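Structure (tokenized):
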């Protein structure tokens, strides 16, 4: 049974930061729009305070999360234990896209390891935190982070990365505005 949690306390923070992967889900307002769910890793998640979190949004094949947040702010982050005791934690909230032109960009960026290929940061003001059992989640062993994205970005010039974002991340698959480089 799901249990609502008031804040991210020290114990929950420690558990969250131990997880190697998290999932981000968003949806557009239109009922015919595509719901998006994306896995994230690479030590790209931070807890800013007991009611606010952020993650590095890295260059990718689409920009659904950004487009959905810009349209309606709704977002949920899910963590699940793949080792140790079973547990799932969901963080619901209102997201904000922090691009390099945002006045708080440097403050948020300072919380993360510098990485080429950061398109933005997604900051979430939490409106609900809950955990559930995770009894049916399988056990997996973490072998390491993939370096494919970093190598791909390193093979491009800064202008090459910007061109990719301009061509592939300006609109969502439903035609919503996403990134403007």
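Design, position by position:
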């Amino acid at each position: 049974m799901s249990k609502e949690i008031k804040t991210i306390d020290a114990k929950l923070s420690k558990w969250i930061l131990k997880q190697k992967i998290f999932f981000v889900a968003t949806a557009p307002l239109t009922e015919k729009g595509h719901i998006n769910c994306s896995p994230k890793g690479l030590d790209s998640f931070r807890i800013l305070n007991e009611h606010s979190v952020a993650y590095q949004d890295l260059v990718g094949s689409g920009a659904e999360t950004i487009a959905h947040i810009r349209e309606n702010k709704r977002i949920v982050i899910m963590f699940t234990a793949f080792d140790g005791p079973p547990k799932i934690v969901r963080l619901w909230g209102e997201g904000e896209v922090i691009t390099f032109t945002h006045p708080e960009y440097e403050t948020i960026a300072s919380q993360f390891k510098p990485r080429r290929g950061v398109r933005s940061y997604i900051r979430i003001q939490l409106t609900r935190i809950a955990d559930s059992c995770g009894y049916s989640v399988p056990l997996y062993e973490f072998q390491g982070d993939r370096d494919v994205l970093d190598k791909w970005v390193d093979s491009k010039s800064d202008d090459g990365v910007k061109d990719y974002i301009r061509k592939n991340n300006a609109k969502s698959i439903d035609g919503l505005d996403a990134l403007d480089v």
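Reviewer-requested clarification: The first strand starts at residue 3 and ends at 5. The helical segments are 10-18, 64-72, 105-109, 148-154, 158-168.
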